[in-house]
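HUMAN: Quick job: go over this next protein and say how the chain folds.
***
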Amino acid sequence: MIRILLVLLLLPGLAQASPIRIKDLVEFDGVRGNDLVGYGLVVGLNGTGDSLRNAPYTEDIMSNILERLGVNVTGEQLRPRNVAAVFVTATLPPFARAGGQIDVAVSAIGDAKSLLGGTLVMTPLTGADGQIYAVAQGSLLAGGVSAQGEAASVVRGVPTTAVIPAGARVERELDFDFSSLRQIRLALREPDFTTASRIEEAINGNFGRSVAAMLDAGTVLLDIPSTRQASPAHALVRVENIAVEPQQRARVVVDQRSGTIVMGADVRISRVAVAQGNLTLRIEEQPVVVQPNPFARGETVIVPRTRAEIEDGPATGLAEISAGTNLSEVVAGLNALGVAPRDMIDILKSISAAGALHAEFVVN
């Protein structure tokens, strides 16, 4: 109950949404990152690497690297436990130049137990076109830890993933002439006709003439020559800082794992009556060990003992939720039911199924 109050009562202030910069609402056409991926080898692990019997591809890449370095390992049986095959991923940011450095993420693909303390050997990173755009290498920073003994082990976090800050150097630039663009599309991150119309009006009002046109709910077209700026970059500098008050669909988001409920400011509920029960099923296993009498023939056996019961706890009864015209009234009506957060999620599902919840219902 406390979680509902804390999460929902923090949101009424969203009803008076403050203006947001256009740069925080849209993506500019051509100004985006590109995904890179590579396949490499991590060395220097403390016995937590791949077992080559279960990951033969690790031996293949290790042999290839040694051959390129002039070490002949033909016919050799390699069985180290301090190496691991990994996938290396990164994002090439827009306008990245040769010589710049970017972060990379490293993930084990074999049966390695941990990448803690490892070093990534030089790994080319390719784009969707198959071209190499960066090369990664460096010491790993693992986000988890694992320890193992003779009879027990403990793992915290995910030790089979790691990052290398500024671990890749850009070797190839994207062939994109941004300065020659005559039109730039502004793609809304959350498509909405009202928001797109407001962006169009705000841009045209700022320039004092028609320089932008709404194409659909997710796109606004900016005409660069009409802005009378020195270049597309200068035009975007002026456009991206214009403030607009966005309009979004009413939405209820619930997380069933944590029992968290978040409601947008425009959520409305029609007048409904709700009754919620509390049924508990409990099963307990209490096995009993039965032994024969001393010096008697027989053997010790375990006799199962199961206790099962269904408990019908107190229910909320039939309660009426009045129609809410704002978020505060909706929250007050739901909290009047006096149920736990996880029960509230089921109630919201039922209200949505009944057509009384006027919002998009999202379950994670």
Observations:
- Residues 193-207 form the longest helix (15 residues).
